[in-house]
Amino acid sequence: MSLNDDERFAAPPPNRSALEVTDVLRFSVCCPRRNIAMMLVDGEIDLRTAPSFRDQLCRVFGAGPVMIVLDLSPVTFLAAAGLRVLVDAQTQAEKSRRRMVLITEARCVDRALEVTGLAPSFHRVRSLDAALADAAVGYEETA
């Protein structure tokens, strides 16, 4: 039985801790502006850590931000399982009319996206400032 993209991002499994941290992958979430959530991902995203990565993204999506910024600049390894999570998240963002932006300073992230042909599927920037500048274009904030 295969899960569709909506089911994959509907909710994290109940048996997983909300603050799960592995020894090779760490997460930090903040809101640099109203309706924008940023998740910093630090470490290796592989078959073992991809479920935690997916769970954390589910929590971010569940908070309902208009824009999700994933700072992948501290990522040291990105395997196919991590790419699958990113593709699913991008699909969910598009379906829910949200914008997902990747901060990709890490060569391993850019390389994985480019060699797989996935690079055009993602909006990538080099810094949070660039992501926030993009947020100002097309999104009107009110006080």
Q: What key attributes describe this structure?
A:
143 residues; alpha/beta; 6-stranded mixed beta sheet; globular; disordered C terminus
Structural account:
This protein has 143 residues and is of the alpha/beta class. The protein has helices spanning 5-8, 50-62, 80-95, 107-115, 128-136, and strands at 25-33, 36-45, 67-71, 75-78, 99-103, 123-125. A hairpin with a 2-residue loop joins strand 1 (25-33) and strand 2 (36-45). The longest helix is centred in the middle third of the chain and has 16 residues, at 80-95. It is globular and about 30 Å long. Residues 13-22 and 139-143 have low confidence and may be disordered.
Q: What is the residue-mean pLDDT, rounded to a whole number?
A: 85
The total strand number stands at 6
As residue ranges, the low-confidence spans are: 13-22, 139-143
The residue fraction in helices comes out at 25-40%
Number of helices: 5
**How big a fraction of the residues is strand?**
25-35%
Q: How would you characterize the largest beta sheet? A: 6 strands, mixed
What is the overall shape? globular
Query: What is the CA–CA distance across the termini?
Result: 46 Å
Structural class: alpha/beta
Radius of gyration: 14 Å
From N to C, what is the helix and strand string? HEEHEEHEHEH
